[in-house]
Prior knowledge:
heterodimer; A: alpha/beta; 6-stranded mixed sheet; 37% helix; B: mainly alpha; 79% helix
Amino acid sequence: xxxxxxxxxxxxxxxxxxxxxxxxxxxxxxxxxxxxxxxxxxxxxxxxxxxxxxxxxxxxxxxxxxxxxxxxxxxxxxxxxxxxxxxxxxxxxxxxxxxxxxxxxxxxxxxxxxxxxxxxxxxxxxxxxxxxxxxxxxxxxxxxxxxxxxxxxxxxxxxxxxxxxxxxxxxxxxxxxxxxxxxxxxxxxxxxxxxxxxxxxxxxxxxxxxxxxxxxxxxxxxxxxxxxxxxxxxxxxxxxxxxxxxxxxxxxxxxxxxxxxxxxxxxxxxxxxxxxxxxxxxxxxxxxxxxxxxxxxxxxxxxxxx
Amino acid sequence: xxxxxxxxxxxxxxxxxxxxxxxxxxxxxxxxxxxxxxxxxxxxxxxxxxxxxxxxxxxxxxxxxxxxxxxxxxxxxxxxxxxxxxxxxxxxxxxxxxxxxxxxxxxxxxxxxxxxxxxxxxxxxxxxxxxxxxxxxxxxxxxxxxxxxxxxxxxxxxxxxxxxxxxxxxxxxxxxxxxxxxxxxxxxxxxxxxxxxxxxxxxxxxxxxxxxxxxxxxxxxxxxxxxxxxxxxxxxxxxxxxxxxxxxxxxxxxx
Lengths: 306, 255
């Protein structure tokens, strides 16, 4: 659906995007991660045609960005990081204004606006002026606007970043609901918990390069190995010898009745660890696998590249 | 065409809700009412100031003088009001990034600029005609001597309107060049008030928009070849300036 090859962008002497390559398949939610200033918004602005790029090839839904931009604009939706609206307009008026720009007919416009306002839960506030909307309401209106042309691809730039927990929850819920509509979503964010919740695949942008790109699950398996936390009924500090002989165990930490086992190979650990524990004469009270977090992958990858 | 229609309606809504039309109406029409009244009261005011000496005897205040006074005020004050009111019309769209969402929805920049130009041209032309008619009416009541015909005043008003259209397009151009609206406004005012000086250069005089103001102030507007050429030149400037404004907007990268 989106194919970016050797994308480069510079502002005067500063090279913002050095050589970006990625592909996004149809219906996929792609999390585009990076620290502030990594070039996420620049990439987003290029993909939506707002700014030009120095070199590279961009194909969206089979259309070439340079030659067929007008076709691309009809199939994409975009929510900027801080969506700006005319504050004197009401939410409904703004949606109508955008429908007029798109040249939609009046009957179609009215039905579409009602549907979108319902989707983003702004029906009740639709006749209030946007100037009086909260940040979360503006963000939801932005999502409604981005969906006005029934886009096949949606570009969301930090849609939940500046929101309070309630507003963030609402926005993430709306994005999750878009998954069922088979819309391809390119989501730029630095809120990793949101990415973990909704994205299928991620790409990490660091200093103008994509330093990592894969499915979330594969990344977790590859980058972060789980830690097994076991609690025994008696002191377990003398049990280390039972585990040290296995080469797939990296290290063991014990503290009175608690033991944490760090492994090198999670598949071997999953298969063999329980067997080993069952042979120990110390009753197990709890056995937990500490799951890896995207944040750890992100920090590891970014730090390695700095 | 859809962008033009959408922005035409949007500019009208904005003009009403942000009181831009009201400010322009006050700037243009208020003096149409105040000037004749002030001129009527002037002899009394001057009498009080100069201890009984009637200075107004040395001034020939009549219908023609009253209308000329209004025309001067339109030039001096309305131009400033227009520049300050319209200084952000294009700058703010870019600076506040209001244009981002419409652009990603296929906004046509030609439609945007033409809609903005047309809305304010229609509004300012209407206010100018209303102002001239009101001023003519009051001046006629208060100064029934040396009456100027309504057709002469309307011809002058037409020339003023064309000139103000040039001012609008100039403000829009500068507004698309400078990031701060106030810079665009001040530069527009500077250009507007420099033109009367440049018109003294004979070769240039007929080709400058200010020639229209000069002719309008004569109350004896004859649409001869010189004036027609001057009007055509002014309209050409408006078209060229508008094309440059659109081109400028197309080159701006919003990020």
